[in-house]
């Protein structure tokens, strides 16, 4: 690892390129495909011949030799001035093909999310990592015309309260919120350059009802008496605000689980933080990563809150290297009811955060 700044390389068709003027790489817990964008020159240090980069070329983005994106160059912009010829390259992980492309017409019985994910991912040469239990089979499954692979897989993921994301190797990862701590905390007056917090009630509801179809139904359009429903409540919403959702199909998972997951996700998105820190490493050899818990530290190292890193952007420009973090309460991704006011669960809750109150 470089002592002053990380070594960032774009590997295209096996050839590694340096000479960056700027770079930005983003990976997130709720992002199926990581993204990158950077400016490069067509004459690289140590190379005499220009090596243009073609749109659609297989590529990897490496930080100090470790892959953070494995996928394809989506777009290439070429620019000229009096002295140089440069390219702006942007692209995504291999999992972008699941986001963009439609699956073949599929009708299966007793299929589970991991089975379908592997079936469709294999079409694009993508590996699947199952890091969370989600093996409840769907008695009957049929694709919808026009929906992409990700659209269909996300319906199953929501019902199982899991998320579809990617790793640096371009694999599809089926996961839930992590419990691992980041290599460093966010220290006010220390590594923190900037911190903002937001609390919102706009998209939160006091009661969420999910209506689905019972195991006795035979398809997407079962009769009303075949329906099942689940109800979950957010005790922190101060007034009556009901919401009813129609699940894709109750056999995809419990309607009660789906309702609680919806409440928790809305709770988490109603509490968010944005942090900016120096450098790209939480500690030597460990990049800041999504799906890790991080302590927010106040005076004398006192822990004010412990939140989940849901998105990471590594950014480099003329000003140096910084990391931008998106933070949310981990409770947003748990399958347990939100604790009522005044009751404490595990760890520090949002209510303990100075400036954010419910």
Automatic annotation (TrEMBL):
Domain Baseplate hub protein gp44/GpP-like C-terminal: 255-335
Coiled-coil residue windows: none
InterPro entries: Baseplate-like_2-layer_sand, Baseplate_GpP, Gp44/GpP-like_2nd, Gp44/GpP-like_C, GpP-like_N
Domain Baseplate hub protein gp44/GpP-like second: 95-176
UniProt domain Baseplate hub protein gp44-like N-terminal: residue ranges: 7-93
Matches recorded under Gene3D superfamilies: Baseplate protein-like domain - beta roll fold, Baseplate protein-like domains, Baseplate protein-like domains - 2 layer sandwich fold
Name of this protein: Phage tail protein
Pfam families documented for this protein: Gp44-like_2nd (PF22255), GpP-like_1st (PF21683), GpP_4th (PF21929)
């Amino acid at each position: 690892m470089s002592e002053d700044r990380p070594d960032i390389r774009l590997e295209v068709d096996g050839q590694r390129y340096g000479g960056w003027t700027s770079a930005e790489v983003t990976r997130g817990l709720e992002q199926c495909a990581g993204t990158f964008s950077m400016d490069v020159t067509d004459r690289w240090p140590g190379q005499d011949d220009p090596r243009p980069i073609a749109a659609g070329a297989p590529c990897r983005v490496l930080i100090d030799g470790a892959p953070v994106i494995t996928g394809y160059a989506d777009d290439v912009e070429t620019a000229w001035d009096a002295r140089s010829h440069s390219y702006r390259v942007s692209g995504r992980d291999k999992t972008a093909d699941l986001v963009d492309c439609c699956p073949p017409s599929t009708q299966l019985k007793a299929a589970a999310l991991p089975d379908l994910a592997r079936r469709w991912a294999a079409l694009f040469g993508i590996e699947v990592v199952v890091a969370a239990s989600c093996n409840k089979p769907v008695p009957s499954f049929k694709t919808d015309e026009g929906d992409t692979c990700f659209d269909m897989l996300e319906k199953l993921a929501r019902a199982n309260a899991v998320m579809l994301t990617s790793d640096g190797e371009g694999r599809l990862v089926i996961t839930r919120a992590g419990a691992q701590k980041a290599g460093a905390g966010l220290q006010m007056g220390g590594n923190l350059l900037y911190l903002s917090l937001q609390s919102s009630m706009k998209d939160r509801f006091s009661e969420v009802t999910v209506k689905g179809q019972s195991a006795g139904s035979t398809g997407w359009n079962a009769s009303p008496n075949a329906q099942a429903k689940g109800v979950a409540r957010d005790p922190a919403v101060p007034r009556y605000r009901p919401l009813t959702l129609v699940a894709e199909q109750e056999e995809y998972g419990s309607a009660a689980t789906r309702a609680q997951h919806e409440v928790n996700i809305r709770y988490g998105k109603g509490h968010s933080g944005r942090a900016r820190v120096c450098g790209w490493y939480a500690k030597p050899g460990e990049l800041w990563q999504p799906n890790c818990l991080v302590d927010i530290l106040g005076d004398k190292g006192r822990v004010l809150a412990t939140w989940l890193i849901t998105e990471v952007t590594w950014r480099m420009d003329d000003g140096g290297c910084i990391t931008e973090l998106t933070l949310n309460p981990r409770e947003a991704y748990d399958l347990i009811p939100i604790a009522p006011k005044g009751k404490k669960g595990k760890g520090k809750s949002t209510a303990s955060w100075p400036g954010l109150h419910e």
